[in-house]
Structures are given as C-alpha cells and as structure tokens.
Write a structure and sequence with these properties.
37% helix, alpha/beta, 9 helices, 10 strands, four-stranded antiparallel β-sheet, 263 residues
Length: 263
C-alpha cells in the first residue's frame, strides 16, 4: 500500500455516468487512483460496481464523463460525435488497463502460455520470444510455471484465475482491474488468489478491485469506495470506511452483510 497524498494519480475518473434505458446504473462517479495504490470498490449487488469497472476498460461505454491516464483521456460524452474513431479510442483505453474477470475467461483451446502471450503478441504486435520469456517469469511468480503447457480444463479454479492475472499483467497495463476475482471459486481456493493479489500490491501494481471480501479489502486497500444506488456514498481508508463508517447506509450495509464490521 502507498500514501495517497505522496503519489501522483495513475487514473482519474471524472463525472462518469451510465444508463440502460430508463435504468440509471451509476451517476457522477469521480475518484482518483494514485500510482502504486489499491482502490477497492464495495457495495450491494446491483449497485453498479461491475459496470463502473467495465467502463474503465471500455467493455461498457459510459454515457458521460472522462477517464484519464497520464497521456490519454477518453471523454465518453464526446464519443458519439466522433463515431469514426470510437473503436480506436476504446482500444487505446484498453491498452492502459488489464482486466481480470470473475469467471477467468481463458481460451479453452490454448495452453496456459498461449493464453498469457496472445494479447501482447497479436494485440501489441510484440516479439514472440520476448513475450514468452516475460510470460514464463510471470507464471513462475504466480506459482504456475509447471502448468505452462497445461490447458484450462486441467487446472483448478484458483489456478485458472491466477492465469487470468498473469494474462492481464502480460499486457503491462497502467492499472489492473479485478471484477470479483474470487466469487466463482470454491471457498478453499479463494485464499490462493487473494494471496496472489496481495503480492501484486506489495510489488507496487496499481489496482482497482471490486470485491465482497471485506477482510481482504481491509488488508490490501489504500482507498475504499462504497457504492450504493449507482453513487459513491462514502470513500476513505479501509479503517475509516470499514471500521468507522460515517454514513448510515454504509453502516447498514456492513452490519447486515459482514456482522463484526458494523459500528
């Protein structure tokens, strides 16, 4: 974890909004993610957490607001006016972020090494041998070196998720995005994935994580955002939000859902 005041922003989200028909998914979402820090997003089901995260990767296209990195800003409100360059802008956005999905989303017909190297080789047009060498290092660091030639159906759920993490890291993104990385796992496999993410935090990776694992959030986060009804209800350190929440809705959510986190 890092000091939010000491580090420059790696990511700035400004007034992000999204609706599906008459359903307002989220509105006026603004926050900063400092270089080398971990931001954790919590909240009830249906609060907009995952859609916010997917908007940071361009998998969902917000209706308004901006997502800004050092050298690139995408203004979602302006995209409809620039239809010919929309896909180019979304591709550029994705080049700054690496996404780790709930259900792994590995290619079943490719072995582990190929799953990890596919994006850098074909998406970033990088040298194959160089990418494979980097991928071997990543897999080794995640305890998966001996699985490099295995296929996804030969792996446990926890191993598949760690391959998904390696795949995202191989793209060398500015920010790693995790969408409920343990929700599809059996309870006994959750620990190994959380340990891998903790290790990334210690290495200084910048991350935004949507999770329901409150103790993990408390251990790893520099900043916690509590989302409800598509809005940021409360934000602050883990100690402030999880242990000493000020907003009644935060206290209600934590008390009802996590018992001893209630104030």
């Amino acid at each position: 974890m890092t000091s939010l005041d000491a580090a420059k922003p790696a990511l700035v989200v400004s007034a992000l909004s999204k609706t599906f028909g008459s359903n307002r998914v989220f509105h006026d979402i603004s926050f900063e993610v400092s270089e080398g820090s971990v931001t954790v997003i919590i909240g009830p089901s249906g609060s907009g957490k995952t859609t916010i995260l997917r908007s940071l990767n361009g998998l969902e296209v917000a209706d308004a607001g901006q997502v800004q990195f050092d050298d690139f800003t995408i203004d979602f409100g302006e995209l409809p006016k620039r239809k010919s360059t929309v896909e180019k802008a979304l591709i550029k956005l994705r080049s700054h972020t690496g996404m780790v999905f709930q259900s792994h989303n590995l290619f079943a017909n490719l072995d582990v090494l190929s799953n990890v190297t596919l994006g850098p080789i074909f998406g970033h047009k990088r040298n194959k041998s160089e990418v494979e060498e980097e991928a071997i290092t990543l897999l080794s660091g995640l305890g998966l070196l001996e699985k490099a030639s295995s296929f996804p159906d030969q792996l446990s759920g926890g191993q598949q998720q760690r391959v998904g993490i390696a795949r995202a890291m191989a793209l060398k993104p500015r920010v790693l995005l995790f969408d409920e990385p343990t929700s599809a796992l059996d309870p006994e496999l959750v620990g190994e994935v959380l340990a891998a993410i903790r290790s990334l935090a210690q290495q200084g990776w910048t991350m935004v994580i949507v999770t329901h694992e409150m103790r993990f959030a408390e251990q790893v986060s520099d900043q916690v955002l509590f989302i409800d009804g598509g809005s940021i209800v409360e934000r602050g350190s883990a100690e402030a939000v999880l242990r000493n929440p000020k907003h009644p809705r935060t206290r209600e959510f934590l008390g009802a859902t996590f018992g001893d986190y209630a104030v």
